[in-house]
Automatic annotation (TrEMBL):
Family annotation (InterPro entries): Kinase-like_dom_sf, Pseudomonas-type_ThrB
Key words, A-Z: Cytoplasm, Kinase, Transferase
Domain of life the protein comes from: Eukaryota
Keyword Cytoplasm assigned: yes
GO molecular function (one): amino acid kinase activity
Family, as annotated: Belongs to the aminoglycoside phosphotransferase family.
Any single Gene Ontology cellular-component annotation: cytoplasm
Compartments reported by the entry: Cytoplasm
Lineage: Eukaryota, Metazoa, Chordata, Craniata, Vertebrata
Protein name (Swiss-Prot/TrEMBL): HYKK
Keyword check for Kinase: yes
Length: 171
């Protein structure tokens, strides 16, 4: 490992929230009561599958969500994360099978939370998306029809985003 790699991994701090801390985040930032929470696999961020408890106050909204806690390096560029969220919202409105973005109690799509780790304060960008049930493609037998459908969806996605970027450049 080169010294450059060591510096990169030091700058990029993957979150290490416990399930209790993650539940508290969902409740304090998004105003939703958690009935069940469990970690999801992730590479350099931290994700949780969250089941929302229904109360008299929260009768509408999602039943299941994904809490996404960005690593410290990504959290330094909140505009990029917000653009990703807006793209998700655009694609959903265009009919793609994407998650919905859940708003914070302050009606934002992300929130920057600071955590005192004893020796320093670290900031993490958090967002909540609706949970999409299904099986990862890695668990599905790959065949010509599936590859065709994936290619077709990728082409439609590309065309939709191409049109969207053209609209943005015209503005």
């Amino acid at each position: 490992m080169s010294s450059g790699d060591g510096q990169q991994s030091k700058a990029l701090t993957k979150p290490s929230f416990s399930e209790v801390q993650a539940s508290a985040l969902v409740e304090s930032v998004f105003g939703l009561k958690v009935s069940k929470i469990q970690p999801l696999p992730s590479y350099d961020d931290q994700n949780f599958h969250v089941c929302i408890a229904r109360t008299r106050v929260t009768t509408d909204g999602p039943n299941e969500c994904v809490l996404k806690i960005s690593n410290t390096e990504s959290s330094k560029t909140p505009d990029l994360i917000e653009v990703q969220s807006h793209i998700i919202m655009f694609l959903r409105a265009a009919g793609f099978p994407t998650a919905s973005v859940c708003r914070t109690k302050g009606d934002n799509i992300t929130s920057l939370v600071s955590v005192d780790s004893g020796s320093e304060v670290k900031s993490y960008l958090v967002r909540l998306l609706t949970y999409l049930p299904g099986r990862p493609i890695a668990e599905i037998p790959i065949g010509p029809q599936l590859l065709y459908e994936i290619g077709k969806l990728a082409a439609k996605l590309d065309k939709t985003l191409e049109v969207r970027s053209g609209i943005l450049f015209c503005l």
